Amino acid sequence: MRPPIRVKVCCIGSVAEARLAIRHGAAALGLVSAMPSGPGVIGEPLIAEIAATVPPGVAMFLLTSHQTAAPIIDQQRRLRVNTIQLCDHVPETDLRELRKALPGIKLVQVIHVIGENSIAEARRVAPLVDALLLDSGNPSLAVKELGGTGRRHDWTISRRIRETVDLPVYLAGGLRPANVAEAIATVAPFGLDLCSGVRTDGQLNEAKLAAFFDAVRAASA
After folding, report:
1. Model confidence over 53-81: pLDDT tens digits?
2. CATH superfamily of 6-220
3. In whole angstroms, what is the distance from residue 154 CA to residue 152 CA?
4. What is the mean pLDDT of residues 13-42?
5. pTM confidence score
6. Which residues contact 60 (CB under 8 A, 6 or more apart)?
């Protein structure tokens, strides 16, 4: 029997949204710090406030666009999250520094699934992190897209990445109740990560959230 798929609800904007997501079954929450583009960015005082209310057993992902170790370490120590989502490329030396400085903190590297080169990128970084998150986006644009696009990418490439690496893999990008069964069947990910698919006018929508979790349970049965 397939283990339950973990669901991460991203772009959490308040303590109330965090509680709503957890009540419906979220295993992880995404808290978005400063980004060059995309939804869900909140200030660090609010991130710290939300993180302080999250019960044990729920992962608190800090989404960071920093690309070097020192500012990421400083963020984690200020905000007290238990997981760092690295939304941009971080050099190998800095990943090793993060691991040394934050031994109890999970590192999750985002791979922007653009083409075949994304598979090689995933292979390179896999030994240095705890999980991969496969998302849409394009960090090479003049204004970087580091996630939160609401677009799906080529899930067949994500499947190949998942089969290639010996790590938990989260799938993100355009997930909704109507396509989550296809996503699970195509990629068979460890976890799912969603933002816009369960929101209305930027606010977490309880009916959409419930429908998404119902669809995940049905697809996983």
Report:
1. 999 999 999 999 999 999 999 999 999 99
2. Aldolase class I (3.20.20.70)
3. 7
4. 96
5. 0.95
6. 28, 29, 31, 50, 51, 54, 81, 82, 83
